């Protein structure tokens, strides 16, 4: 049976890759006398259901100069028949034998850096975002994403305008947790319009790839994608952006801490010693990069049997609170292990909006109020330290 004429034909990998490479040969490198394909700058091209993914290898010091080439490549691929979307990132992860030469692109205006030295990273605010907080954990499986989404909705319940960035490239959760389907579109300013749920703006890699698609990306590609989801999205205007970080203390966490001015970090842990060891690592990482730690949340703190009402401390109890006291960090609250929280999360109706008058919603809202108070206090302290000009 032939497909209706208004449908795009499905592309097989072999044909699609040949078409994509042929199209990309039209994009020349200024001053190099060759195109990006001949220069060997492309990673493996991944195609899944009409969605195309690859990266362009660039010298770290010339990433800004290559941004226009990345945009041209993305436009070029998106115009091919059968391509639904194209996600192209810049990466400084050089391939053996294919590393671009340092002078491939003409130097940018201004003073040049000495050979072999990288320009220092500069923190750049995200347009339209007043405050950014990271929700992190030392390990996976502690309920960080569930805490992130309910914290964001708790902040929204306080009357704030809120956004959520799902920074877990490998395991994005926000589409499922917020019941969002579809893809973001591009506005007249060439920025992605974030998706929305419950009056909260949301961006996630889960909107750009299918739920069962593995993201087989190296660190630099993740960093590039994360940077684009932060700065190429039209967040304006929101009071606070909650960033659901991937577990651990790797590239994504360092990128976030070093490239954008974080107002603070919230650490999520379960009560048992093993989780607290990893939570302590995450906390110390933020301390080392001079990001205020807003406090620790003890998730799955206890379990109350829905049938008999008996309480059980399945993972122990109070470990995170004791750790917070030992480290001189605020303890933000204890969230129980409860079926209502799990069921509403799976439904795409987080407990704070599904049952706003419940005890569990109140716990999250109280945590949100404590976080917002500390964000304001830290912001006031930073303003007080800024030099002031007094004219007498």
Which helices and strands, and how do they pair?
Layout: H1 13-24, E1 46-48, E2 51-57, H2 63-78, E3 85-91, E4 129-136, H3 144-157, E5 162-166, H4 174-177, E6 195-197, E7 200-204, H5 219-231, E8 238-244, H6 251-259, E9 264-269, H7 273-288, E10 293-298, E11 303-304, E12 311-312, H8 319-327, E13 331-334, H9 339-347, H10 351-354, H11 359-385
Helix pairs in contact: 3-11, 5-6
Keyword list:
alpha/beta; globular
Note down, in words, how this protein is organized.
- It is a single chain.
- With 392 residues, this protein is an alpha/beta fold.
- It has helices at residues 13-24, 63-78, 144-157, 174-177, 219-231, 251-259, 273-288, 319-327, 339-347, 351-354, 359-385, and strands at residues 46-48, 51-57, 85-91, 129-136, 162-166, 195-197, 200-204, 238-244, 264-269, 293-298, 303-304, 311-312, 331-334.
- It has an eight-stranded mixed beta sheet, with helices on both faces. A three-stranded mixed beta sheet has the order 1-2-3. It has a two-stranded antiparallel ribbon with strand order 11-12.
- Helix 7 (273-288) links the parallel strand 9 and strand 10.
- The longest helix is centred in the last third of the chain and has 27 residues, at 359-385.
- It starts with 12 loop residues before the first helix and ends in a 7-residue tail after the last helix.
- The relative contact order is 0.12.
- Residues 1-15 and 93-122 have low confidence and may be disordered.
